[in-house]
Amino acid sequence: MPISVVINTYNSSRTLSKVLEAVKGFDEIVVCDMESTDNTVELARQGGARVVTFPKKHYNYADPARNYAIHQARHDWVLVIDHDEVVTPELRQALYKFIKHPGEVKGVYIPRRNFILDRFRRSTYPDYQLRFFHRENVNWPAEFHSEPEVYGEVTKLPSNRQELALIHIPASIDHLVNRIKRYAAADLTNAPKKRVTLAHVALLPFATFFNTYVLKGSARYGVAGFIAAATDSIGTFYRHAKRYEHNVRHNLAGGYDGELPALIAEDKREHIPQYEQMLIAEENQREREFAEKRDSDSNL
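-> structure tokens emitted (300 positions)
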């Protein structure tokens, strides 16, 4: 029986060639691209993939395109991988062996090996991902970081055989920073009215750092582990800071682009703190004095 590989992409040129090279032994490769602005599509076609397009719109994550991508596959059994995941030869062989006698199973969890820069992150293994399934028995919700829903029995590949695990290509520092921004945007899209307190921006970043560095064991990976914990902490701060900005700006006169105090509407002035009222009064006085001086100079 044949297997289709489905890969979701957006500006994925850094890793896509390596990912495509690893899946050449499958019957079909489908790249579902979300209107990349780099050479992702060109690399996909050079790598032997059939390219389909899903409109990016305001999305900063792949989940809304998953169902569409899966149903572009021509074969019943589908392996979904991200643009930064490598399939080992052993995993490919195991999947083809499995579909010869799948029984009632409609989905398979696959272990994944994650890295912190150059270090294998053992504490996260096996990090099971539900990525192999019969395409007529799956639904992938559009929500951020959602997991596919398989209608039928599911099983897991053995975690003690690491050669069967997906290899998660380590993210670069630039990618980590971009991911922080994307996740913050996705968080706003999914829960735009969540309240932000001082604890969110002052305490949660430290809690995130402690969780990653100590509880999840990143400390054992030296410099790479510290960088991972620091970027996780920065991501927590940035996500809540962006939400606070979002909430505040939508409460200003002029909508999201309104600025304090220049665009404050007259009916909002009673809500401005006293010191801001003083600033506005002083600015108005300076403008009057300037106008008076200009009129006086013009009469000379």
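The radius of gyration is 26 Å.
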